[in-house]
Specification:
Structural class: alpha+beta
CATH class of the largest domain: Mainly Beta
Low-confidence stretches: none
Oligomer: single chain
Shape: elongated
CATH architecture of the largest domain: Beta Complex
Number of helices: 2
Order of helices and strands: HEEHEEEEEE
Strand order of the largest sheet: 2-1-8-6-7
Helix content: 25-40%
Number of domains: 2
Distance between the termini: 83 Å
Radius of gyration: 24 Å
Mean pLDDT: 91
Number of strands: 8
Length: about 150
């Protein structure tokens, strides 16, 4: 009789494991589906401010990352690849950063509170649908290394 109880216990444990594994697989399938839908191409409003009063908008630009949107907008981009850290943008449309003038390219996202500096590499950033992003040729404070926000 003891052998029968062991098989019954093993069957119950196996059944519980199968139910738990099935529920987890369904959960992760829905998580993956949601992520895949969000990672697809989105439409954003993309702009360039050259720091001299010239600001050009590329509204309705599509891309799955900010970098993809820049490429799809037809920008000429010069960058340095830092592997897992991402791309560092050295020049956009022929305007290169200037260490002597303390001017560098940085991207900013429009929020309810104004411009917010993008804190990640453009090839690692996944924009939200309808987001407004501006690349600004920004003066940088040489003592604090803080970027000035776009006007």
């Amino acid at each position: 009789m003891a052998l029968g109880n062991k098989w019954a216990l093993a069957s119950v444990v196996l059944l519980c494991w199968a139910i738990a594994a099935s529920l987890l697989s369904v959960y992760y399938y829905y998580q993956y589906s949601d992520l895949a839908a969000r990672v697809g191409e989105v439409t954003i409003n993309l702009g360039i401010d050259y720091g001299n009063g010239t600001r050009i908008w590329y509204n309705g630009t599509k891309g799955s990352t900010l970098y993809d949107a820049m490429v799809n907008a037809g920008w000429e981009i010069k960058s340095t690849d830092y592997g897992v850290m991402g791309l560092y943008i050295n020049a956009i449309n022929g305007l290169e950063e200037s260490a002597s003038d303390y001017k560098y390219w940085g991207w900013w996202s429009w929020t309810d509170f104004g411009w917010s500096h993008g804190g990640t590499a453009c090839d690692k950033y996944v924009p939200s649908p309808g987001e407004t992003i501006l690349w600004y040729y920004s003066p940088v404070d040489p003592t604090t290394f803080e970027y000035a926000p776009p006007p």
